[in-house]
Every structure is written in C-alpha cells, then in structure tokens.
Automatic annotation (TrEMBL):
Natural source organism: Balaenoptera musculus (Blue whale)
Keywords: ANK repeat, Repeat
Gene3D superfamilies assigned: Ankyrin repeat-containing domain
Chain's gene name: INVS
Statement: the UniProt record of this protein carries the keyword Repeat: yes
SUPFAM superfamilies attached to this UniProt entry: Ankyrin repeat (SSF48403)
ANK repeat intervals: 47-79
Coiled coil ranges: none
Protein name: Inversin
Highest taxon in the source lineage: Eukaryota
PANTHER family: ANKYRIN REPEAT AND SOCS BOX PROTEIN 8, ANKYRIN REPEAT-CONTAINING PROTEIN DDB_G0279043
UniProt cross-references to InterPro entries, sorted A to Z: Ankyrin_rpt, Ankyrin_rpt-contain_sf
One Pfam short name: Ank_2
Keyword Repeat among record annotations: yes
C-alpha cells in the first residue's frame, strides 16, 4: 500500500476509505478520493455495498449528492440484490413502523 492510499484513513485501503468517508459524512475526503480515482464512486465492499448505499443508510445526503454528481451508479446492487433506493425505502419503512408503536 502506498502513502497516498493512507491519506484519509491510515491503515485502510482506498475502497474502505471511500466507504468510511461516505458513512461518516466526510464530504471533503469523499470528493478528493473520487476525484483521484473515479472508479471508487461505485466500489463495492465485502457485502457488495457501494459508497452511495452507505450514504443512504447513514442519512448522509450531502455525500450522496456528491456521489450522484460524480456519476455513481444508482442501479448497482449489493449481494442481496438491493439498490440504494431499496435500502432507502427499507429504512423509511422501518422508521414508519417504529413511529406507529
């Protein structure tokens, strides 16, 4: 692993860095990573989840917007065949169910 791979999250690969930036809402790091390597915008983790999926799950809409503007694939599916839209709908449904309790 070279020094630039550790720039934002020491000890992690670029793939895990882009996922961490997405889930933590670090828009600046996310932007720098995808500008440096545009393939990272759709990079899958061990579950097949992309940075966009993590933005949806973590309510990081500003980072999701950054990924969408960079051309992230909204139709990519994880290993369970769910897209970011599926995850958003599933999350919203869970919030509605909890609200009715």
């Amino acid at each position: 692993m070279n020094r630039s791979e550790n720039l934002f999250f020491p000890g992690s690969s670029l793939a895990s860095q882009v996922h961490a930036a997405a889930v933590n809402g670090d828009k600046g790091a996310l932007h720098k990573l995808i500008i440096g390597n545009s393939a990272l915008k759709d990079k899958e983790d061990q579950f097949g989840r992309t940075p966009l999926m993590y933005c949806v799950l973590a309510d990081r809409l500003d980072c999701a917007d950054t990924l969408l503007k960079a051309g992230a694939d909204v139709n990519k599916t994880d290993h369970s065949q769910r897209t970011a839209l599926h995850l958003a709908a599933q999350k919203a449904l869970g919030a509605v169910s909890i609200g009715r309790m």
